[in-house]
Amino acid sequence: MNSSSLNLLIGLAMGLNLLALGSSRLPSLIRTMSLQGVVLGLMPLLVEAHAGWAVWLIVAATVVGKGMIIPGFLQRAMRTANIDRELAPFIGFVPSLLLGAGGTIAAVALAQNLPLLPEHAGSLLVPGSLASVLTGFILLIGRTKAISQVCGYLILENGIYLFGLLLLHSTPLLVESGILLDLTVGVFIIGIIVDRIQRAFDSLDTRKLTVLHE
Amino acid sequence: MIELLESIIRLALWLALAPLLPGLINKVKAWVAGRQGPPVLQLYYDLAKLWQKQVVLSTLASPGFLIGPAVAWVALAGVALLMPLGPAGSGLSFRGDVLLLIYLLALARFGTAWAAMETGSAFEGMGSVREVSYAVLTEAALVAAVLTLCLQSGTVSLVTMLSPAAGAGAALLAAGLFTVLLAENCRVPFDDPNTHLELTMIHEAMILDHSGPPLAVILHGASLKLLLFAALLTQAVLPLGGLPAPAGMAMLLAGILAVTVGVGLVESLLARFAFRRVPLLLTTAFLLCLFALLVAWKGRVA
Amino acid sequence: MTPGILLLIAGLALGFNLVLARRFPAIWLGLSVVAAGAGLGAALEVLTGGTAWEWRSAFSLGGEPLHFRLDGLSALFLTLVAVASGAGAVYVRDYWWDGEQKRSAPRSRLWSSILTLSMGLILLAANGLHFLIAWEAFAIAGYFLITLDRDRPAVRQAGWLYLGASHAGTMGLFAFFALLAAKTGSWELGPLRDHPELAPLFWLALFGFGVKAGFFPLHIWLPSAHANAPSHVSAVMSGVAIKMGLYGIVRFSGWLPVPAAAGWVVTGLGATSALVGIAFAFAQNDYKRLLAYCSVENMGIILTGVGIALLAVTHGNALWGRLALAGALLHVWNHGAFKSLLFFGAGSVLHGTGTREMSRLGGLWKRLPVTAGLFALGSVAVAGLPPFNGFVSEWLIYLGLLETTTAKGPAAWAAMPAMIFLAVAGALAVAAFAKANALIFLGAARTQPAARAHECGPWMRAPMWLLAGLCLALGLAPVLVWPAIAHAVGTWQPEWNSPELPAPLLRLGTVQIALVVLIAIAALMLWRRAHREAAQRGLTWDCGYATPTARMQYSGGSFAGIATGWFRGVLQPERKLRRPHGQFPSAALRLERIPETVLEYALTPAANLILQISTTVRRLQHGRLQFYLLYVVAGLVAMGFLVWWGGSL
After folding, report:
1. Helix (H) or strand (E) holding A96
2. pTM of the model
3. Rounded distance, CA C215 to CA C87, Å?
4. How confident is the model over C443-455, as pLDDT tens digits?
5. Closest chain B residue to the Cα of C433, Cα to Cα
6. How many CB atoms lie within 10 A of CB C422?
7. Phi, psi dihedral angles at B6 (to 5 degrees)
């Protein structure tokens, strides 16, 4: 396992988390998220010493799926639904950035105290995964646009994916493929819903959906 | 006596070289834009001319209008004495001098903000408010950077703090300090040194009512501050202490030059940010320095 | 003369003052100055001589023999009491004089003497019971001084708040001293570090003294009390009286063992108070309130130093703790000097203009040049900028924090965040005092009273000059006061008792002197250059606008707007906006108010809840005998159940 370059990639992913929290425009949020997907997609190559065809397949699928298909779809949805590209935050950018940074530090501190396998002790996999999950939650809670919520979900999923890398030796990447598939389908559905909401209500602000509660 | 003489020579060098930097930046900008641009020594000509000019004082201005720029200039000159020059060491060094450096910068800020408020103009008010408010965030970033350097070197004096390499977090520290440099010196994307009559500036808005010699002092101080930050950034990141003296000196100069060119490129390629996004960028700078600090903490035993 | 005789002189002078205060202002002034001088002399003798002064008497008060002690730590605080109360006594002659304040001026003198006397007794008392008596007298005297101008409702309200908060704290202290006496079997106070079972008492002391020290979130009484009291009172209250709370914390954390968490908690409280205090200060529009909140910040800075020292004690008396404690104790002096100076300056402005609103002032430097200059000096000092005294003590505390970090122990996790908090607080302090000076003294007068202001008299100026001189002297020659500080540090922790300089203070002093000289030279050169030919005076250019008015200047709200926005989570600014409408708009309004967050959003709702519950419970009290009998039976049955249930366990 090439641990230092793996850590570098995870550090990059953690930085991208913060970048996602700080981006105030939808396209840059989507770009950040897709870049994170690509970075994460390359990781199995570093985790696995001898990359077989299955690993290559998974890498290719992840990079293409997370780095191109999903972002491309979101961007199309954004264009067709004519969304205002400025994000309207529920939690401001600076507070969410500080929250994310605090969460990242807490994740690193927490991971040091977890009873991990010795081969995972020096790795940033666990903190990186926790930080990504947390970032996803902050985005889900703190942003109001439907598409930014999708981005939140995707970053959350990236965190789960990172955690899955820990188990790479015991599970044959099947679970991960399942999750990825679920998510792709989910994004498709949300994309369609977004389009429908836009046609029906002229707005994609999830705050405005509260008037539908009855 | 020798020591005093050396300090004076050192200071004179700092003061003489400082106005070169804005000229270089302007050259880079002109080069990117495909223009001829003003001569590199333009600021020297400007300063000489301003020093000869007559002063117009506002009817509202108290003696503080002239004392403020003097305080700021002396404070920055003091920082120049404290700042080490790679292998050449610094003119004045003692334990905890890095704190004096931070506070001298604050004193300079107080002096310029004071002088700006003397005129009772809303423009100057706007400028000084922005100056003192954004400094809150840059100071947090700067202190986080200083803590990083202290932790890495295990000392609290500038000369020993700046000589070793910045370690694992060097890239983070460099990015954070570069952003601090841009903000503290009011460059793009925080402020546009080219605009003069806009509501959206910091430094230029503060000095709207200054003229003649006081303006010259302020402009010279600003260029000195830029040089100081460039030197700080270079030495914080590069391991100049381990090199032989000529190589270290050359590397320091190359680093300062690189930073200057970097500022020029940023200024050519980026537009000024909307003001409501400035805190976000400054928080990012703080976080970069903070993560550099954490990386340094992680690597403290190794 | 020995400290004993000097203290006797001071005590006698103050005692005579109690009798003479009402009728003979001149004699009162003379005796106050004598008392201050004698007290100062005694304190300095102990601080430089290195031995503590102790006196026991057979005479007993409340069943306990009188026992006084003046050691390094109490002498340090006594110095401050003497200087500030002496300066206040001189200041009051022009500020709160009999011609203008017929009824309250005699009262002011009387209660000032009682305040000084009780503070002296607190510092001297070596017996828990007498400490409590002096503490209570001190609290009451404070109340009467705050409410001198009791015709105004705001003053009465501030007084009540002060009295209530103060007694909540005293309650904690009663519990503290009573438990201490119960556990040790004696009311005598002294070093008891080897009794680990006493450690939990520290929390009681921290609360009881903390209310008086006024750090966040126990500061609720402080802003309104210091803003509404007459300025000579605010100066003594802010410069000295809140230090008594700090004295308690430092004293008993030195004498008694402290819990392991104490250092962490105190450092955290200190750093938070520094940041939140100065954020509140920056947002204020009333300059006395700004100064009051700035005291919260400075108490936070001092407390941070104390917290680091406590951490150092638990980490084997590491030397960084010594630096931080020395900085904290020096800051006690420094804050006393510049905060009294600033409140005296504020009093001069209030005296000259009659308003505390900064947005109604402006351009006062022309009418009050001395006040403006001295206030500016105090501002630079309080913002912790070189070359004044505030910088020296903050430098020591910061150096302690940096050395804690480079030691790479677990305490670094307290030091690194504290350092960042204090740095942000420092930058905000620069902003807050740039704002205060700019709005009060610079620019053009915004209202008529500001345009017609008058400078204060020589009796008010003299103490300001004295304190300004102190600020400069302590800044330029910190090495001279080092032996005194080292002695106080050694009293707190005997293992740190060494006269050797822990930091290059001499070098720092030289640099500061050089800085003053260079600034003077540079300013003079620039001045001469600018006035080479008669400098042209003109209207502020203001981008070519021809008729600027005073109302177009930046106001307090706009000055603090950016940073207030960042801290709106804590500050909760309330904004009211009525835009102008129509072709001929009649009225427009923009109001901004910074509430007392802790008081209005936490304490008042809690108090209301308690009041509601109490009102509900009071319905049970209606005067019908039959129901009372029913209560008795119900109570008996309940107790029976309790016994039965308890027995079955």
Report:
1. helix A93-112
2. 0.91
3. 25
4. 999 999 889 999 9
5. B110
6. 27
7. -60, -45
